[in-house]
Amino acid sequence: MAPINASEVKGYAPKEVLPEVETDNGKGIGYSYDTLQETANFLLSRTSVRPRIGIICGSGMGSYWKDGSLADHIEDPVRFKYEDIPNFPVSTVEGHTGQLVFGKLGDVPVMAMQGRFHYYEGYPLWKCCLPVRVMKLIGIKVLMATNAAGGLKSAYKVGDIMIVKDHINMMGFAGNNPLHGPNDERFGPRFPPMNRAYNYEYRKIAKEVAKELSIDNIVREGVYTCLGGPNFETVAELNMLKMVGVDAVGMSTVHEVITARHCDMHVFALSLITNECVVEYDHDAEANHEEVLDVGRMRQDILRKYVTKLVERFNKTLTP
Ligand SMILES: O=P(O)(O)O[C@@H]1C[C@H](O)[C@@H](CO)O1
Ligand SMILES: Nc1nc2[nH]cnc2c(=O)[nH]1
Description:
Layout: H1 33-44, E1 53-57, E2 75-81, E3 99-105, E4 108-114, H2 125-128, H3 130-137, E5 142-151, E6 161-168, H4 170-173, H5 200-212, E7 219-226, H6 235-243, E8 248-250, H7 254-262, E9 266-276, H8 289-317
Parallel strand pairs: 1-4, 1-5, 5-9, 6-7, 7-8
Antiparallel strand pairs: 2-3, 3-4, 5-8, 6-9
Helix pairs in contact: 1-3, 5-8
The structure holds ligand LQZ7MJT6 and guanine.
InterPro entries: Nucleoside_phosphorylase_d, Nucleoside_phosphorylase_sf, Pur_Nuc_Pase_Ino/Guo-sp, Purine_phosphorylase
Pfam families: PNP_UDP_1
GO molecular function: purine-nucleoside phosphorylase activity
């Protein structure tokens, strides 16, 4: 039988129109350990700050509203624009400034990402999570990821802060995972467990600190999921997610957490509930990014105080 010429088959994309798979000089998916070590060395050689806690600032939380945001309160800051860091992607989303800030929050040395990378920007998941591996290589032990999310649980109100107890990796169900591709054991094992992804002790501390700051009336605990975006969800999609136990819906964090746990970092995550998920058809409200940023601004002082206290408490759990 004559071989089939794939490019003549209807619906088959010829090789020249298929997207390029991002590789490290053709050596595989993702950047190699050595390439990321170069990025880590670049940063370490330009600052004397040696952070053990890394913070990812979500939409409206680290970037947009100048002077009040967490990242703007880091003392003695050393800032790196993403475009100046070797091998780093650049932020393209409003509300994500696009710089790394090293310095002190309270009396704790930290590194904060003022802006993260999302799948919908066109980056493969491994590239969205590249900064997490760089954090690992500069000595960071704890990843604190923050995000803006739609509140799906009916008890949640706009402005609530959800401690993430667990996640559902919807994109992973379809085989899209930041660890896809060859595994480098220097980062972690081929098959990492994920049942204890969100550190139990840190969740407990976060609830105690919420009480100390008298914000326990707005602090919740729940399950987060990440969808690919950039569109917000349909009513049917939200109802399906609700049925399977999702409390808050976003477009980030899950793959960062998987990457961090793969390389044995402790993980804590917070979702700021920036909008109510609309789960009925006879409803006029529509989710929009402006509301997300506005709620980030409304909560920036509380979040900054909360995160600063958490950083101090988490730091005490780390051995010197
Ligand atoms: O970076 P995060 O996850 O905080 O941002 C969320 C998801 C989208 O990027 C954006 C939608 O408004 O907010
Ligand atoms: N997917 C998703 N991401 C969000 N980020 C902020 N709000 C939302 C939302 O309602 N859905």
